[in-house]
Amino acid sequence: MADILTLTAPELAALLCSRVCHDIISPVGAINNGLELLEEGGADEDAMRLIKTSARNASARLQFARIAFGAAGSAGMQIDTGDAESVATAFLANEKPELEWRGGRALLPKNKVKLLLNLLLVANAAIPRGGKLTVELHDVDTAPRFTLTAHGPMVRVPARFLELHSGVKPEEPIDAHAVQPYYTLLLAREAGMTIEIRASAEEIVLTAL
Fold first, then answer.
1. Between β-strands 145-151 and 107-109, what pairing exists: parallel, antiparallel or unpaired?
2. CA–CA separation, 118 vs 21, rounded Å?
3. DSSP code at position 79
4. Pairing of β 78-80 and β 145-151
5. Contacts of 10 (CB under 8 A, 6+ apart)
6. What predicted TM-score, i.e. pTM, was given to this entire model?
7. Is-contact 206 196, C-beta < 8 A?
8. What is the rounded CA–CA span in Å between residue 176 and residue 167?
9. I want to staple 150 with a disulfide (CB 3.0 to 4.6 A). Which of 64, 75, 97, 123 is the partner?
């Protein structure tokens, strides 16, 4: 696994920035469209609804990215899993799956919480047509581990995540589309955790332990 995690720090930073920009460009563009409607004297109510919805979406994505991808404080800092649940709930409110979050609230090392949120993104990508995502936190006060279950139609493990998880050097270079699965595995290594995948025709189970 370590052999494939070879991006330099500047390369990783640049690709993660591209990923965040990709995530927020759609709602920001929608805000701009709403403002243009107002300037043109369009339906004020519809324009304001578009602006408000898109602003909430953009804010949710940025708050999520702040914890999932950002420094979130100095080295060694801990993050409240309650904060992770809040940003995950707001983020998925604009996505297709329903979220169920189970487990006690605790302060955990930041890389473990960042790993949890990045696994949530992988699980979300596993059910592109929607369904249900269940996040379970176990033994948070002693030996934290996480289980994420993606249940829905057309369920599949994202191809780039599966490729990178296999430990085989990828045929294609890591780009802005593949950097999030790459970063997830890098976080697992930094957090001293192992990711296991269990797949069936109906659900994908990701476990970090």
1. unpaired
2. 16
3. E
4. unpaired
5. none
6. 0.89
7. yes
8. 19
9. 123
pLDDT tens per residue, range 105-146: 999 999 999 999 999 999 999 998 989 999 999 988 889 999
What is the rounded CA–CA span in Å between residue 50 and residue 53?
Answer: 5
Structure tokens at 24: 């927020």
Amino acid code (one letter) for 15: L
Q: What is the pLDDT of residues 22-62, one digit of tens each?
A: 888 888 888 888 888 777 776 677 778 888 888 888 899 99
99, 127 in Cβ contact below 8 A? no
Q: In what order do the strands lie in the sheet with 203-208?
A: 98-102, 132-138, 145-151, 203-208, 195-199
84-93, Cβ contacts within 8 angstroms, sequence gap of 24 or more: 84/113, 84/116, 84/117, 85/135, 87/60, 87/63, 87/117, 88/64, 88/117, 88/120, 88/135, 90/56, 90/59, 90/60, 90/63, 90/64, 91/60, 91/61, 91/63, 91/64, 92/120, 92/124, 92/133, 93/60
> What are 160's two structure tokens?
């780039």
- CA–CA distance, 133 with 118 (Å, rounded to integer): 13
Q: Locate 122 and state its tokens.
A: 């992988």
Which residue reads 């930041």 in tokens? 110
Residue 6 contacts by C-beta under 8 Å, 6 or more apart in sequence? none
Provide the sign of the torsion angle of the four alpha carbons 13, 101, 59, 155, taken in this order. positive
Number of residues that this document lists for the chain: 209
What is the C-alpha separation between 81 and 110, in angstroms, rounded?
A: 10
